[in-house]
Amino acid sequence: MKPNLLRTLALCLSLSLGKQGSTFGDSPKPPSEQLPPEQLPPEQRQAEVSPSAFPELARFTDDGFEVPQSGHPFTFPRDHGSHPTFKLEWWYLTGHLFGPNKERFGFQATIFRKSGKPAAQGAPASKNRFQKDEFFLVHTALVDTLTGEFLHSERLARAGWDASAATDTLSVHMDDFHLVLSDPTANRITLTAHIQDQAAFSLSLQPLKPLVIFGENGISRKGNSPTAASWYLTFPRLKTSGTLTLKNKLIPVTGEVWMDHEISSSQLTTEQVGWDWAGIQLDDGREIMVYRLRLKDGSADSASALSWVDRDGNTIQQPASAFSWDGTAAWKSPHSGANYPLPVRLKTTDPATGLPVEFILSPFVQDQELKGIFSDIPYWEGACRVLQNGKPVGSAYVELTGYSGSLTRALR
Asked: What is the pLDDT of residue 129?
């Protein structure tokens, strides 16, 4: 495998970017029932994003991969599975797990799929399972909030007998990493994974609210480019139970998990260098998905966005102008030398009250940097507590990328 291909695959850290949100199955109001923007309340008026802000989507990238199109009729369980005509795809889980003796853990389990060539240009069908231009990368991580220990691993494989993704349902695996839709009727999911020989987990996950599809008419735009878009599917809160094996000790765990599935062929534009993202689960039963796309000058791209998910799974969208994200301090990695803006201060408007709200996303452990074994470009992915006026109000996972090298080339 060519070194630059290894680098490109390992850089596919697009992990939970989204734009605006809508719950799967929601029907928009007909024009006769919609108020003009000037008659909307302020928080809804802010959420309005003009379709003319972005160019029309291309059908294909320059190298021949499909680009997600609006109005796609999502069909499940098929759309939980793999989409090999698109260049990039990932299934991404982060969550907080609790043991019986006040143990608390944060974990990440992600599998990326990348196509080297479009299907029409790839290797012909063959009995040789290794004649495939498709690759998989697995990232797993675990943080013990009591001891401060952080474990992580990365593994890479070519599609074949040891790595595959079904196209008709959720069933992806790489070696002993398995993510499977075990009960399509109830959307029950099972996950098994390990972190080298240091830790392993076996979890059963059950959605507590409906699947959310972020974006306008099913499309999550990532910038002013006709190919910078994705389909972005999320279970924002999964009730979770299972076991964690840590240092040969079997620990029963329960908790809540956030799961993203994103499909695209091009994520960043030439002017973007990385992003900041958070999946926030509030104790009041709501969630927030927010991302800030960072430009070369450090400012936020206008495609940045925030979405609230209410207790019933409905979404309220807020554009880049309606929120701010900044670091209250900085943590310098002793491994990469990168400076990460931590803790994070997030300011926006609470749609339930119409009032300004401020959250502090504070890491349980500062050093939660994944070192980028294959890519040489690290990123920070960590479990955080959510504070409001100094009091805990929820849990979050935060991702900070592009602080030790731009991701632009890899995600276009």
From this structure: 46
